[in-house]
Records
---
Amino acid sequence: MTQLENENPLIHQKLQERSVLPEEEDDNIVDAFDTREVFDLIRGINDPEHPLTLEDLNVVDLSNVQVDDGKNDVKVLFTPTIPHCSMATLIGLSIKVKLLRSLPSRFKVDVEISPGSHASEHAVNKQLADKERVAAALENTHLIAVVNQCLENS
């Protein structure tokens, strides 16, 4: 068995589930995407090392999600649990894939590490911003299997 990088992660309190308004269930009403809706898409992503969600570990937080529906922009900052987390790229890729699969294709999705929270912040952000690298990663059958495992039940 391999040694976990962060054997005893701090578990944070989850946000309350939001109530769905009748207008939101009406398919005839077009409503804008907001930060809470995007956060709800990513909060349940599984951590690759622990049987916990990214929200449980405070890797994703509502305050680090920005949505501009009019400009078709979504930006998510995530914070790895430790500064040398080797899973940071995989976590970022999982967030990006979840949003690309869930949001309309009109959205430009940016996923980055929160400034100052990771030793390889620049390198990870560069990988996550590179469309060709992301596309190549998604063609790797082993890697996409791991990403899909993180997205299971999310």
Note: Strands lie at 65-68, 73-78, 108-113.
---
Amino acid sequence: MLEGLYAHKSYDLTDKNLEEIGKLFHLKTLNLGLTSVSRLPPEISNLHLENLKVGSIELQQVPALPSSLKSLSVQAMDFSLVPHPSSITDLEHLELFRFNNLRIGHHSTRRDYDSKLKAALMREQPSYQLPSHLLSLKLRNISPLPHYSDLLNLTVLYVFDCPISHLPITPGLTHLRELHITRCESLEEIPGLSLLRSLERLKLKGLNRLAEIQGLSELESLQYLLLSSCDLIGQLPNLVKLGKLQHLEIEACPNLRAIEGIEGLESWVLDSCSRNILERLLDVSRLTWLSHRLPTYDVFLSFKGPDTRFSIVNFLYYGMSQDRISVYSDDDDRRSSEGIGEEILQALADSYIYIPVFSRNYASSHWCLRELVHMVKSTSESKGKRIIIPMFYDVEIDDVKLETDLYKSDLDKHWMNFDHSEVKAWKEALIEVAAMSGFVLKNIR
């Protein structure tokens, strides 16, 4: 009677585990994303699945897919091995993600992975004819793009990491409501954008070669516009026609300094170091806008370099970066100035989550202790918007509470070298943060 089977990121899952899946007659949802499955059993086509997700660098063969599918996500290195989904007449949501980077499980060696990747990249990928009833389409690292010009029902289109120089918009996309284009580093233009008269949300992120957004001023239904990391964009078309625009967000566009066509904010200047947000109040005058800036960073990592730089901090930093979490990683050993520095103060002010990594030598660094005091102060003044998540790495909570000699001896040395009021603040911050919920991790030697 099982209706849902979720094995996402089960890297040890192989073909053998799926031999009897045909007996799950009531199965509606099957998630095999990021596994080591190389071949789906033919019995899959006989199931009445509504949602299927499959992804593996080992994937070599996908059988005929169930005609009952409404949602399909395929992650593979070579889409010439995947059947065209055009015959699935009821399909509403489709994701096609082509791997170019993936964790290697113990079933694959680095040499195997590299050879498969090279072979897949050299092989010409198919250009799909898509089901005409699609409502949403997500494409990642796909080239050439599938034919989507006749998708009259399509309302949501995502294009990620695709090596394309232009993304043509056709009259067949007249019902599109959302368009997201992210990290298409070769993209230089979006011809036909002005045709999307029903578009309500537009997100453009990481488009390093896009110099202008032609047709933007004609999107009369646009309510939400986000621009992020578009380095070459120096000017936007006049936005005076966008009467329905309610939310405008701009981040890391260093050459964009001003916005034309927003009444009442002609003199408003963008800050390229922050996330700039304009929001129009509803049911009031068109002249009433709120402007504010949000942190550039999500997480601030504070740590003592030699203790943690090549272990837990490296793991945290790259793990969060891969999940698109912006991290400010501060290493006290790389500083030279006496003060805490404007850059660090700004990063502390910008971040929502603080992670002090308490290691054996953390309290020996007056830099780390000063940062800790700022974390405590910012958190207490944020009214719940900021949090501290301490990590106790190769130390005990009692060490940080100054109930043992480990941190207490470091503070005793600080009493002789720094102002007593400052050291007192360090002591209070250590005790306060040690009482917060966090993680205790042991260094395996």
Note: Confidence is low (pLDDT under 50) at residues 101-111, 333-339.
---
Amino acid sequence: MHCLILLALCCAFCLAQTPGWNLLFGTSILDETQKEPLQFDKPVPKWIKGSLIRNGPARYEMGKRSFLNLFDGFGKLYSWQFPGNGSAFFTSRFVQSDCYNESLRINDIAPYQTFDDLVPSMGFLERELSLSHGLDNMNINVYNYSGDCVVLSDTWKLYVVDCYTLDTIRHSMPNIPGVETGFPFVSVMSVAHPVREYGTNHHLTILQSLSIIPGMPHKFTLVRTKSADIREKIAEWKVKKMPYLHSFSTTERYAIIFGCPFYMDIEKLLQYSFPKDSIAFHADEPTIAYIVDLKTGSVTTIETENVFTMHHVNAYEMDNNLLLDVVSYPDASLVSFFEMNNLMNKTKRDRVAFKPSLTRYRIDLKAQKMTPITFDTNPSIPFANMLEVPTINEQYRSKHYCYIYGVVFKSDNKVWGNFSFVKKDVCNSTGDLSWSLPGHYPMEGWFVPDPTGSAEDDGVLMVPVLDGNLGKSYLIILDPKTMKPITKAYLPIIVPFHFHGRFIENVY
């Protein structure tokens, strides 16, 4: 009994040190809403007209089973809708994937592929069935493909949803004319961050095809996306090892795929069933960049330093070079950090050597050389270069730009919970700014440009935040020039930690 009392006191002490943490990670939030009015404490600029739609895990168990990893939580969509008259509404809805619907029907986590195992664990037959069903839970990102709202994960499969109600309409596994995806290839992996093709309304994405025949090369296909269902091949090339990808970059003329030595092993996947057990970081191997000419389809391969990255920021052409900005890490330990037993243990998560570094690579195509460059640090905001989940003013995609917006999860480099939302000025570090409040957890923000503005930071930043002290969520609108609050509104439900999304104009 004394041990139980002591354990309870210790748990209470941990939660007191990081207020509301249990609501941010690992607690299922089952509430759904439909166009609930929001009350902002100050007027919302009337030029804001559209919807901020975001995606992320929000349910971690079904029946007697639960997930072991944040990456596997059932996806949920959130929409902040702004009609352009100063009013605002909030809608939330679970992604009605085949996996989610089947899990509801049987009151258990249905046998679809997950990144990690379950508790209780899957049996042999369930693992085999999950492999055949594939990964179906789209809980990472949201895009607008020529009017089709789609939700994505790091897979080729996607779901189309209603932009206004967030109802799930159907799934899609688009064919690519001229691309062989059948035996001996398993063509199911892609990226959760397609990139808009410069000067068009199309997006570029990647299909990764893993060969199941030992010794036979795998292949990349760079693809143009015209809608939820229409694809075109731009280029295709073979690789000896297939890196895990989450994002990539484009300039006006080139796509840059950064193949870090975090390789997928198809044989281990078929043996163990879980991607977590099928990917490994190779600290003794270089990163390989594949630069694709979008006009000719030719591919240039350049090796650079051993590094890991999940999130690209932007890339552009200058003085006959390509400049690529990414959030880099010395290894891939970030991936294992999101296991629930790490996230929910304060001692463990604080001990993780979590220190992302904003890095620029200068790519000289003629010399076939990549040179890493570190950004200056502003002494008053020394943590600005440690931002994650980066976003920019999308009007500057593939162009010269200065401002990156992101979250620093460990601002003091001690406590994984001291969140700050930052503006990084990569042109002049004296322009670095930040916003934070103790016990408040900002998540990925989105820059909405002022239609009458002319400067890169003319607009607003929309940032979902969990107020851990009150146990409530709110949306704050910040002035990007000062990082001072313009207005905020508390939400009718809790919005836990989620991954990505975007503002879609004229959808409300």
Note: Residues 20-505 form a domain with the Methylamine Dehydrogenase; Chain H fold (CATH 2.130.10).
